[in-house]
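Service request form, structural biology core

Requester: graduate student, group of Dr. S.
Request type: structure prediction, single chain
Budget code: on file
Notes: please return the result as structure tokens.

Sequence provided:
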Amino acid sequence: MSRIVITGAAGFIGSQLGLHLHRAGHDVHLVDNLKYGYRENLLVDGETFGTFHQTDIRDPSLATVLAGADTVFHLAAISALPVCQSEPFEAISCNVAGTANVLEASRQAGVRRVVVASTSAVYENSKHFPCREDDVVSPTLLYSVSKQQTEQLCRSYCADYDHEVVVTRYYNVYGPQQDIRRKSPPFVGYVARELIAGRQPVLHSNGEQRRDYVYVDDVIAMNVACMEHPAAPGQIFNVASGRSWSVNELYTIIAEILGTDIRPVFRSSGLFWEKYDDLFGGAKPLKREKLAAEVDKFSLGSTFHAETTLGWTATMPIRQGLEATVQHIRRLSVAA
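Core staff response, request fulfilled:
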């Protein structure tokens, strides 16, 4: 049985990864400051699985939690793009400085391996698809930039200390326990929540924009592979399905699952972040065309590197994954 630490453990992916590892017999330590995570995500039958530490990843006390750990999964971050854009200091502090603290504390503690969550958003301005891990990336939005800097830190610790660090670039992860309460929920969770409530979802652009979606159970399997496989350290892996789905295609499937004929309202892409009006104030507002490009961008990840190096591939069929996600949100809505 290994001691495993997960940062961002009360979030969507971290909580399910933690439960999986706990059930596999590991001594799981769950770190979260609960700013974006939810304590109830860590409960099974009213009891916390593993050991919970309400700690910020930037706190010096993190070193105590990491002492004796075999593996650290670093998932803690501010991941909502408009939040990062409107709070740049906090985004860089948490995502970059926080990662530096995790890496340094794990190095000092002799942690065997650190698996660090990055994002496909680093491919923000890419024009060639599917995107590969060795592509040159040049993002400009603050979330993407912070994650690119995070990856550079990981590269530094691998090169300078021979520290075993693995980077995972998540595409659009969906599944049960997706956060549907935040200001700008992920697409699948938002649509399901609105349709279950009998409301008309408000979407942007024309619904033809396509993204690569990967189910949370496949993401957990990738993390386990990165923890165990001897070839993983020093590598970056796309966590993708290798297939893209349009907003309209996913909306149709979700509506069919729920048996509703409610149709969405489509608005201009430039209005997508209107709840964050501070971004459009001041002497130099955010360019509307940049926001429109983010909304309308295409995403598709190459899975070749993960398949050939780790033997990992995403296996969840899209409809089955959406059914599980929708049913979970329906249960939450009934309970509420």
